[in-house]
């Protein structure tokens, strides 16, 4: 794979998503090593393999073709006995990526034309003048030139075709597009050296680079920066065009005053960079990019320049990413949709909130992903202020932080807050960022609001998910689904807690849980609604005040000897009497046909006490699942994980409590769990459909059945905390 080596590969096949058929001759120019090419393409290859778009394994046919699957056929014109052939197989694998992305890249290069929904392609080599020269070079590598899809048979036809495809200039509106010869003559007449060099800080350069990045053309943005630093972007009194490509440079004309404004120059650069020899986009593609830019300018009006600067930011990209209304395979169109939506929000700020806000400032606002009343994402986003005004459901988290002295950290909300100002609130609270889940938000908010980084995950416990509806000041309505957590603070962490007073918190401090309970009974209006709800709920209050603290010696929390015998009395996560509401209707509905008792203290062959027709088979699967967990315990380098697995697998001196595995047809999700203090047994309830799938998988792939159930058991045992008050490994 040496420099200047060219390979010819014939591709044909279909792309299901786009329903396209292609037949092409591709000239591949290796601008980097084979290893670099494969490395660069590997993420796309891996992604496609996950969704089943391609199969990387290939099968050789008698005619020399390599077949991956019915969606993509790769024919390689090479001698199978040569090393080149083997290299081409690897190269073909690199090219097996999203055909749609592939076609887009061809279209950007001006090499793709469409006719009646089918796409015949003729991809030509720009560096070789004749087909004979191409054949001679390819022959050196054991390759033959396939001309069956090439309709241009000589150098003159190739040149004529290229002339039609090349984009020489952005013309003056109303005038014909000048040829490259006309452009060259105009530049040479006025003199290249006499043209003014445009600097890197020129506003048209800054804005053009920002716009190209906003539409995902980082390559064009970088190349434009390269050209300007090299002094290859110039302006002068040239005729017949607004912008043109001359050798390796971009030329702007100053002869047309009505097009000398900054944004018109940006349009010229956005058009011209695609016409350079690096990209070789045709006139239609470059004009489309130019028109998309001008449409954005029309939408933004006088705010166009300030908006363009922020559209390449991560925040702007996230606004598009998390709103289904704004998404598009065409990034230029996505940016236009975003600008249109920003204008709508800008008007709503004025009408609903009585506030004027610029489009650029609006992009920087805090945004929420909207959900329905049940917590399902709707695929829409909205600025925080409008979300609270309109009362849209969104997501947030609340955390009670308690210490070993049975004290809870209470914060007082600032009077400037639009929701429940001046009220006492949970220790930590906050909304989810775009694309964030509840758990990630908890870890982030604890770090931001009280300064604990990193959060010790074995002391973070999820209570549940709840609905909140609060009417605040200035017509604010907070409707949310919030996840409630409890975090056990170590003495070391307590010393470094630094509440973020700036972030809407007036003050914060630890107070005895019993005193807080009394304060709530006397003056409930002094606390947030969710705070009062948690402390008035016997189950939740019990978990906050006792459930997670029992047996927790804070001064020994981090020094627990992983080999000593732990107390046999388990600490309940959820007891029989306080099963979460969503599981209470399940009592008495268990299917005994699939019930097994898993006693972890017994040898493997005796662990399962089955009952019912399918229980023996399920017991065999459970046994295999436990073997998977046992192997993980042996190979893991994580001390906490290994200790936890040793305990749940009965590898400690004291007897591990048995687990009852039950199955219910009424369970709304895959699994639930609770601890029965009367029997000392942890119970895991599986959804009947989930278990039936496991049993079905076992018939054809026992290993997969073991693994699937092992993952689920491991997750559920992590919630029950039936063995140790120290180890909770989620």
Highlighted features:
730 residues; alpha+beta; Nucleoside Triphosphate Pyrophosphohydrolase; five-stranded mixed sheet; 25 helices; elongated
Largest sheet: 6 strands, mixed
Determine the mean pLDDT.
70
Which percent band covers the strand fraction? 15-25%
Helix content: 40-55%
Q: If strands are numbered along the chain, what order do they take across the biggest sheet? A: 3-4-5-1-2-6
- Number of helix segments? 25
The CATH topology name of the domain at 377-550 reads Nucleoside Triphosphate Pyrophosphohydrolase
What's the β-strand tally? 25
CATH architecture of the domain at 377-550: Alpha-Beta Complex
Stretches with pLDDT under 50, minimum 5 residues:
1-38, 51-82, 84-104, 110-130, 140-159, 550-593, 719-730
Q: Choose one word for the global shape.
A: elongated
Q: How far is the first residue's CA from the last residue's CA?
A: 48 Å
The CATH class designation of the domain at 377-550 is: Alpha Beta
Task: Describe the 3D structure.
This protein is of the alpha+beta class and 730 residues long. Among the domains are: 86 residues, no CATH class; 113 residues, no CATH class; 174 residues, Nucleoside Triphosphate Pyrophosphohydrolase, CATH 3.90.79.10; 136 residues, no CATH class. Helices cover 40% and strands 20% of the residues. It contains 25 helices and 25 strands. The strands form six sheets. It has a six-stranded mixed sheet, with helices on one face. Strands 7-10-11-9-8 form a five-stranded mixed sheet, sandwiched between helices. A hairpin with a 4-residue loop joins strand 24 and strand 25. The longest helix has 23 residues. The chain is elongated and about 90 Å long. The relative contact order is 0.05. The N terminus and C terminus are likely disordered.
